[in-house]
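Lab notebook: predicted structure, single chain.

Context: the supervisor wants predicted structures on file for every construct in the current expression panel, including those that have not yet been purified. This is the next one on the list. No modifications to the sequence; it matches the entry in the shared construct table.
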Amino acid sequence: MEYSADEIAAARSLQYLAYICTSMATFWIYDYVCSLHEEWKFLWWSHWTKVKILYIIARYVPFLFVITDIFLNFAPNENSQKCKILVNIYSSLGVISLACSEYFFVLRTYALWNSNRIVLTAMLSTLFAIIASFIGICFSAIATSHVTTSVVPGITGCYRSSTRVQFFMPFLLLFIFQLGLFTLTLIRIAQTWRTSNGSMHTVLVKHNIFYYACGLFLSTVNVLAPVMFSDAVYYSLLEDLQAFILAILATRMHLHLWHMDRHVHGSEILVCISMSDMSSADRTVSTV
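Prediction complete. Output recorded below exactly as produced.
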């Protein structure tokens, strides 16, 4: 049987997606295994707080994200409606992962501003508006998108094709939000650089700057992706990469803070970073 050029191109794109999915799953599992010892110490010894629950969601939702991605790319999905349902689940998990990662750094920025309620309210209101817009754009794009499957035997999976505007708009909003948090961090650094010399404060600032730099870079790449690439396969790669990298950074940095605090206060004092109580300098830890 001979296949048209479009059918061959669709099969090739699905093969690329399968390779990308396998790479991302391997990358995530490798990172999890590398930090498993430290993570289980944190989960076992730290007390239950809202931030710990946030950590668990941010850390383990990407596992569901990976499983859905594997099912999307390796299970036979000739039914376009079934494919759209999977894409909806996949997109929902991606949005949850991004929202949790960003919320971590809303709390960190709130801590740098000495628990300023006005700053917190402004950040949370903006985050809620961004996430609501993100969800609206994503799901409207899925509803109007075209689902592509392969007619070539042995090539499984499916993917959706959206317009360029539908793809880059959510990441443009995310870029604006991250830029706002980055600006707040820089303003706070300028205000307190002479008076705040605590080690925890220094680590918090370094973490924030590095996270925002990575987040802004990845958001910029996703915004520019429709210009740089014509194949929707690359869009999926960049979306996955941003969700995974930000989740890893947010959870790894939280683990680092917790272990650093535990080391400073001694192994006999079990402490947990409660970001809602953190303030500048070394008043960043509350014992629970």
